[in-house]
Amino acid sequence: xxxxxxxRTEEKKYLKWYNKVGYGSGDIAGNVxxxxxxxxxxxxxxxxxxxxxxxxxxxxxxxKLFDGFTDIFFGAMIDKTHSRLGKARPWMLYGYIGCxxxxxxxxxxxxxxxxTAQYAWFFIAYTLLNGVFYTANNIAYSALTSLVTKxxxxxxxxxxxxxxxxxxxxxxxxxxxxxxVAECGAGAQAWRTVAIVYAVIGLIINTVSALSVKELSEEExxxxxxxxxxxxxxxxxxxxxxxxxxxxxxxxxxxxxxQLYGAMINAxxxxxxxxxxxxxxxxxxxxxxxxxxxxxxxxxxTLVGRWKGMYKLNLRGYIIAVIGxxxxxxxxxxxxxxxxxxxxxxxxxxxxxxxxxxNAVIASCSEYTFLTKGKRVDGTMYSCTSLGVKLGGGLGTAxxxxxxxxxGFDGKLAIQPDSCINMLHIMYLWLPFAIDVVIMLVLSxxxxxxxxxxMKAQPPNAAQ
Length: 464
Fold this sequence. Notes:
The chain is an all-alpha fold. 81% of the residues lie in helices and 0% in strands. It contains 20 helices and no strands.
């Protein structure tokens, strides 16, 4: 009888279609910041402002030391928030105001200042964006997946809608930005104008997204029978809870690796410019990445239901991704752009399911902590999303800068030395392949759904 009641609760629907679409549109706002920053900040700093790729990389790496502390802090703050708008939505709304201002600031470095002042301007604006405002906004946005519904299918659907918007936005940003900057006159002023336009668009859409869903009451989220089991916890306890959850550590690792992967793919603008001799190919390859991802996301909810969970789908998808990226390496050394595009698309299609159901996996990971520790840490659990984006993406950009500097890259040269060309092959071909292999191995161990079901089937005292 108890199991039948539980099953009915899990099947209850909480969201209309427009709630899911409205929620998903929030990643348009997130990606006018993230896709723009990760794809173009390095080439803006090196080729327009004239800064050193190696020094920029070092500043980004130092900034990440601060970022690591803020993720768990804001996650814990979200868990402790009680407001008319709920736990997460206030942080999502107000955090983005700072995102918009600091994004514009990063692309508004004064050209008449000395280099030291320019580096300081970039470091301060970049650290505030990543370590404070984007952290608060992104963790809150991700946490809404577990705060507005208890239905696992709806959570997968929310993730699919979210990342369809995310990859569509990334595709658009990566396809039009170079041309947009050129239309605005090129140069530093043009980059500043484009950044302001993107920031305003993001601010409007983020507000609409936050107001399109309503968080469930804490009583409904936890259940009256579980309410008495809740315990208050501090920041140190939150960290301990996360560190004791092996699935959280796996997800963090995968998220960081994904962002490192993305940073290497974004370094493709250098690969297209100096190896393939056509910077406009960067937009073409963006289509080969993002369209298959979007197609995969459309089918992800159906496949999750057919395969009765996310584990098999995610693992099989990344097996396809590894094969695809391996073939990209072969095609790259053959010099065949059509084959590179085709195999890039295959790899991206394989990566799609994990992108779509990742938030639902994190929700299951949060449920694992509740089942084992008796404490809800939804906001803190979703710190892995912001931590992964910032640490993986930031370090990836930093590593790209270091590798470019080490290879002898000079933004003032139209033709780069052979050492740089060889490094670009490593960055764009070999490193993404190696990262996909590691992700596949980690996903082979991440069967959190089955673990949760086994604990639920045990007598109450046995799960503790």
